[in-house]
Design a protein that fits this description.
Length: 202
């Protein structure tokens, strides 16, 4: 089981929970109003083939949320999206351009509105994909340099200056980071963060 959260165009949060059990639905639910502690009842969301072991979510510039699920066979990554902002009508799952991360994934929005999706697979390799235009089609998966000790789990977000930053944990619980050189641009190499704990060991 894995969960992710994203903010819709009207300010309400959406929580999406995925399961790697193929014949058991994932689920999603909404805040009743922005900042509210009251939530909708959950809605079932059919899984793609093989289920999803890790999920991510991010909001497009037009307010529509994209959902991502990794898992199944051959390190597959899947995408589903709202058909309109703040609407509970969703696309079917689509396979996102070949093999990439199948273990962990995270999404973040660039300053120009394009989403980046990063992740790792069962071999500890680090992958990245991105929208070619804001809210539109996706490029192909590109493998970037690894930490040297593998990538077990990733997270991503945008800095105040618009540059995306990725934080990763390796199999021993050591934490690494890398960031864009400029908003929407190329990436730095990995640098270690002075934080290692058994609590982060996968």
């Amino acid at each position: 089981m894995s969960i992710a959260v994203a903010r819709g165009g009207d300010g309400r949060l959406l929580v999406y929970g995925g399961t790697d059990q193929e014949f058991r639905d994932s689920f999603r639910w909404w805040q009743s109003a922005p900042g509210s502690a009251i939530w909708s009842s959950y809605s079932g969301f059919a899984n793609p083939s093989g289920g999803v072991g890790s999920v991510a979510a991010e909001t497009n510039g037009d307010g529509r949320i994209d959902l991502f699920g990794t898992g199944g066979d051959h390190n597959q990554t899947w995408i589903g999206w709202q058909t309109a902002p703040d609407d509970d009508t969703w696309s079917h799952w689509s396979w996102l351009n070949g093999s990439g991360p199948g273990l962990s994934a995270a999404a973040a929005r660039n300053q120009d509105g394009r989403l980046d999706l990063v992740g790792s697979n069962g071999y500890g390799h680090f992958w990245i994909n991105w929208q070619t235009e804001a809210g539109q089609a996706w490029a192909n998966w590109t493998r970037l340099t690894d930490t040297g000790t593998g990538v077990a789990s990733v997270a991503a977000d945008a800095n105040a200056d618009g540059r995306l930053q990725v934080v990763a944990v390796d199999w021993s619980g050591k934490v690494y980071q890398r960031r864009q050189h400029n908003p929407g641009g190329g990436w730095s190499g990995w640098t270690s963060v002075d934080l290692t704990t058994d609590a982060l060991r996968p």
